[in-house]
Amino acid sequence: MAITAAALRELHRIHRQLVDLRERLARGPRQIKAREANLAKIAEQQTAAEEAVKQTRLAADQKQLDLKSSEIKVADWKRQLNSCSSNKEYQTFQEQIAAAEMAGSVLADEILEALDKIDQLELSTVDVTRLHESAKSDLNTFRDSVTQELESIRVDIQRLEAELTSAETELPADFKTDYQRVIRNKGAEGMSEVEEQVCLGCGQQITLNMQNDLLLSKPVFCTSCGCLLYIGEN
């Protein structure tokens, strides 16, 4: 049986191109999933930022209610000062008023700090919201681009698979079994060019007899890596 180097080179070209296209076909969905995961992470950050604003505002509102309640008590105690029946009672009200006013002052400072924190958190929320919208837009654009590219890749794969089928029909019948075995086991890596009597698949030098068989268009397999060998175009 005889199989030309040109036929083997063509088969190897088709196999390698199919490997590349199939890798690209699988890579597109993976890239989309990675961007979707990133978008989900940003969405979580946005939710956390919004929740932080909500909880800080609730805490500030509660402090304002507490302050208002304390101010009402202080005002009531001040009215009761004039009706005290003893110095001790008067002194007790004075101490309560002083303590409440001190606590109210601290509470007022805490409210101002909370309001400042709300302002900062709202700015952070605006930033992460913009980031989320940008990431969402980028994902949609990327998904559309990948969808179009994948359709083109599928067309190329179908074309190359047809070319492969056609090229394989030209192989000698008594050679197909060995060819199919090496392709099934190693794929495109099951074929290798020989350059200056060296198998480029493993870097091992082939024998002179193997080189002569290649020149006579006989099928030759590398004794080191098992690749189906062919002579390079040059």
Protein model, in words:
- A 3-stranded mixed sheet has the order 2-1-3.
- The two termini are 24 Å apart.
- It has helices at residues 5-81, 87-169, 173-186, 208-215; strands spanning 191-195, 198-199, 228-231.
- The longest helix is centred in the middle third of the chain and has 83 residues, at 87-169.
- Strand 1 (191-195) and strand 2 (198-199) form a beta hairpin.
- The protein contains 4 helices and 3 strands.
- The relative contact order is 0.15.
- With 234 residues, it is mainly α.
- The chain is 78% helix and 5% strand.
Layout of helices and strands, plus pairs?
Elements: H1 5-81, H2 87-169, H3 173-186, E1 191-195, E2 198-199, H4 208-215, E3 228-231
Parallel strand pairs: 1-3
Antiparallel strand pairs: 1-2
Helix pairs in contact: 1-2
